[in-house]
Amino acid sequence: MSTEGMLRPVTTLRLTEMKQRGEKISMLTAYDYSMAKILDHAGIDVILVGDSAANVVAGYETTVPMTLDKMIYHAQSVTRAVERALVVVDMPFGTYQGNWKEALSSAVRIMKETEAEAVKLEGGREILESVDRIISAGIPVMGHLGLTPQSIHKYGTYAVRAKEEHEAKKLIEDARLLEQAGCFGIVLEKIPAQLAGRVARELTIPVIGIGAGRYVDGQVLVAHDMLGINNDFSPRFLRRYANLAEIMANAFSSYVQDVKSGSFPSEDEQY
Ligand code: KIV
């Protein structure tokens, strides 16, 4: 990518252009100012303020307890840091499934209070009216199909989705409906690579995969997972780029030892 390309803000239109010229899209999660700043400077295209904050920040088992107020707090922290990447905010469980009016007012709150550029919703035809109304109000929407963590209690498992033909057919139809409704992109989570590739080929909007193989238009991971901050979660699709848990644990125990032994602070580290 040219230096100019690195500096220009990423828009939903630019993501479509990237797909058209076969340039892969990079996307990672962030929930706070410091992480978002590092990601933005590293040249990430899209930052997702994911409701996975419920897991990796708050320690909940699922994303179900996440609230709109907490998502807004995380998103505000992220947008204060970001100059280039497109910031997409997850709409949390219970803020858009009821009816389109509730969905629209949740999306409007996110946009007005956070200055993010887009929202992401989980689901297909069940939430189509909400998607339609949010887009009609001028808010860019990203879809999310396949494994949809907010529905975990309906399925009872985080296993690979859409392996059966009827599920694959529904997923393809849902993806088409989301594109027709005007979504600027879709996340496909934990589905067979060939199916994800077929969806990416059929749609003109970018398809971003997580555990959906290599034939899609881009990839997203939870930053805490790929950094090895939380090593309890090791699905096959996750590539670890660092073992920060080890690096942090070593730094913390060195600090404890230095404080106990009195070697910190030294003469040079005091006034
Ligand atoms: O909340 C999240 O981090 C997500 C990604 C897994 C795509 O939705």
UniProtKB/TrEMBL annotation:
It is found in: Cytoplasm. The active site is at 189 (proton acceptor). It comes from the Bacteria. It comes from Candidatus Tidjanibacter faecipullorum. 3-methyl-2-oxobutanoate binds at residues 51-52, 90, 120. Homodecamer; pentamer of dimers. Its main location: cytoplasm. Binds 1 Mg(2+) ion per subunit. It is an enzyme of class 2 (transferase). This is 3-methyl-2-oxobutanoate hydroxymethyltransferase. Catalyzes the reversible reaction in which hydroxymethyl group from 5,10-methylenetetrahydrofolate is transferred onto alpha-ketoisovalerate to form ketopantoate. Gene3D superfamilies: Phosphoenolpyruvate-binding domains. It catalyses: (6R)-5,10-methylene-5,6,7,8-tetrahydrofolate + 3-methyl-2-oxobutanoate + H2O = 2-dehydropantoate + (6S)-5,6,7,8-tetrahydrofolate. Belongs to the PanB family. The gene is panB. GO terms for biological process: pantothenate biosynthetic process.
